[in-house]
Every structure is written in structure tokens, then in C-alpha cells.
Amino acid sequence: KPRVFSGIQPSGGLTLGNYLGALKRFAQKQDEGIETIYCLVDLHAITVWQDPEALRRQTREAAAAFIASGVDPARSILFNQSQVSAHAELAWALNCVARLGWMNRMTQFKDKAGKNAEKASLGLYAYPALMAADILVYHATMVPVGEDQKQHVELTRDIAAKFNHDFKVDFFPAPEPLIEGTATRVMSLRDGTKKMSKSDPSDASRINLTDDADTIAKKIRKATTDPAELPGEIEGLKDRPEARNLVNIYAALADMTPAQVLGEYGGKGFGTFKPALADLAVEKLSPISTEMARLMADPTEIDQILGQGADKADAIARPILAQTYDIMGMVRSR
Ligand code: ATP
Ligand code: MG
Questions:
Q1: What is the mean pLDDT of the chain?
Q2: Percent over 90 (pLDDT), the chain
Q3: Which atom of ligand 1 is nearest to the CA of 6?
Q4: Which residue among 25, 26, 199, 313 is the one 20 to 30 A from 4 at the CA level?
Q5: Could you confirm whether 168 is annotated as catalytic?
Q6: Residue 5 φ then ψ, to 5°
Q7: CA 263, 268, 270, 276 torsion-angle sign
Q8: From residue 269, how far is each of 114, 190, 199, 259 by CA, in Å?
Q9: Which fold has domain 3-178+299-328?
Q10: Domain ranges of the chain
Q11: Do the beta carbons of residue 132 and residue 125 sit within 8 Å?
Q12: Per-residue CA distances from 279 to 66, 188, 253, 275 (Å)
């Protein structure tokens, strides 16, 4: 039976990259009638330092962003990870299945640990095993993510296969990464070779879902670009990462293909294209930020949604964790 699981870290305010690469597609999967489980992965967020008050606010704000983007708590399970302890428990078991050599190949750790990896937390290193637990504890079969998470979903498949092999069972299904659309890797507005990220120190590098219309327009106007006009064909974007990024963003926001966008704007300069993109971004994002502000006015409603979601998630995860322990030989007597 198909089951979707995905998560977002409440490690900052959510960005246009999170919206196009994740949130918008989360709502689409739900609307296709598939069982959908979405998680604010606060245990992942603390792999780098989080101020406790900021983490609390960011978690509620991220929940508001999910709901404002069309994730309906009546049709999807929406909760924060730390309220369902099976995630952390299965992660420990999977830490003992995953191999150091596999972890050493993970590019996200290298990117986030930076030059001084000795100073990174042990949690940041083990992050992919926790992510595998998030997915496998629901026997999820589909994981909608951005391009940057493909390697972690593939590792999850390897961990599932090794568990099944070691214990001679057919227990964990191999989840498929779903990486679809034209915005699977939205790039920084300042550097077309870097992913847009909520944790980038430069606020100008990203559009936040809470940015107002003027801020969005200003950030797009100031986005780094080359001076040439937009090409008429996709091939013309090949060595122009910044131009390609803005065209892809336009396409994803407008539900068009990049070729259709170039059909409209090919031959025109950024002086024309950037204001059009800014208008489109404001048109699509302002209803979301308005709804987020409304929801944030009373966090008790959000907390209630997360608590109820956690109960539903726990009801699925707990028996799968119990079966896992049983397979591994843990005595279960209570
Ligand atoms: P951080 O910098 O803290 O890692 P992030 O912006 O990368 O934050 P995550 O919480 O790590 O966000 O990722 C949540 C989801 O959003 C994942 O599915 C990820 O692939 C997707 N995502 C993140 N950034 C982008 C992006 N620039 N383009 C498309 N999808 C993205
Ligand atoms: Mg990330």
C-alpha cells in the first residue's frame, strides 16, 4: 500500500526552495488521495545549534507553512518528530545496521560540517540514520524530497536492505525518492552554484515564506545574473546557472515548463523578466504568508494539531518499532 512520508527541519524560516521542492508537492500528494505523513523534524534541527525559544517558534511557524500551503491536518498526518519517540528509538537500531563507510560518503555532512569536521556534532554525522528511521518506522514507500536529499533516501534503501538481509526477513520496504518538477533544486539568489537554504547566513540568498511583497521584489531585483538576454531555447541556459534558476522558479510557480517560459520571455532582458517574476512570486506567496500570520496569532491551535498528528503517527510507528525489536531479539515482556 503506497504511503508517503517526508519532513522539513524547523531550523529557520522556510524558503521558496522548501515551498517548491517540498511543501507544494506534499499538498499535491495528499490531494492525489495517497496516505501522507508529514513531519517537522526537530530532532534533525538540533544537529546544529538551535536556540530553544527560536526552535519552538520555528516549529510552530513551519507547521503554519504546511497548513497554509495546502497540507490539511484532517487528511494528512502532521506532527513534530520529538513527540513520537519511535523515531529516535528506531534510529538507534539503524545506527547499528548502517556502516561508517556509508556515512562517510554523505555529501550533506561534508557541506554542513565544513572544514573543521572535528567540531561537528555526532548527531550531524548520524543524521542520515535518523532520516532512515523516520521513513522506515512507517514502512513508507514514497518520499517526496528535493534533489539534495536523494543520497539520503538511497542510503535509507541500503539500510532497509541490509536489515532485511542480516535478519533474513522481508520487513522494511525500499522507499522511492520522488524528485519531480522544475524546482527540485532551487539555487541561491546570490550564487547560482549553491542551493537556496534556510540556514544560509545571507538573507538575500533566499526568499522566505514570511517575506513581504517589497522584500520579495527587492531580492529578485538584486538577484545575481549575467547581463545577457534570455535565450529562446532551453539549451541556451546550459552555462548560465543564475538565469536557469530564475527561469525554473518562474516555471514552477506558474505551473509551466521552462520551455514555455522561454517561449514567452526569450529575447527579453532581466529588466523585463525580473519584475514579472517578482509579481508572480508575490501573487503565489502572499496568500501563504497571510494564512501563516493568521495561524501564528494563536499557537494553541497549531500545538493541538501537532499533538493530534503525533497520536496518529504513534499508532502506526509503535507496532512497527515493536516488530523491529522482536526481529532483532529483544525480550518483550511488557
Ligand atoms: P537547512 O539549510 O537547515 O538544511 P533546507 O532549506 O535545506 O534547510 P531542509 O529542512 O533541510 O531545508 O529540507 C526540507 C525539504 O526541502 C527537503 O525535501 C529538501 O530536499 C527540500 N529543499 C531544501 N532546499 C531546497 C531547494 N533549494 N530546492 C528544492 N528543494 C529544497
Ligand atoms: Mg537541508
A1: 97
A2: 99
A3: 18
A4: 199
A5: no
A6: -130, 140
A7: negative
A8: 37, 18, 31, 16
A9: Rossmann fold (3.40.50)
A10: 3-178+299-328, 203-294
A11: no
A12: 23, 19, 11, 6
Q: Any residues with Cβ below 6 Å from ligand 1, and which?
A: 8-9, 11-12, 15, 17-18, 21-22, 145-146, 148-149, 183-186, 195-199
Q: Say if CB 30 and CB 76 are below 8 A apart.
A: yes
CATH architecture, range 203-294: Orthogonal Bundle (1.10)
Rounded Cα distance between 309 and 318, Å, is 14
Q: Identify the nearest ligand to the CA of 41 by its number.
A: 1
* Contacts of residue 25, Cβ cutoff 8 Å, sequence gap at least 6: 144, 178, 180, 181
Distances 231 to 236, 244, 268 between C-alpha atoms, Å? 5, 10, 8
233 three-state secondary structure? coil
CA of 199 to the centre of ligand 2 (A): 8
In this predicted complex, what is the ipTM?
Answer: 0.99
Q: Distance from the CA of 165 to the center of ligand 1, in angstroms?
A: 32
- Closest C-alpha among 225, 226, 247 to residue 235: 247
pLDDT per position as a tens digit, 144-200: 999 999 999 999 999 999 999 999 999 999 999 999 999 999 999 999 999 999 999
Asked whether the beta carbons of 32 and 223 are under 8 A apart, the reply is no
The single-letter code of the amino acid at 220 is: I
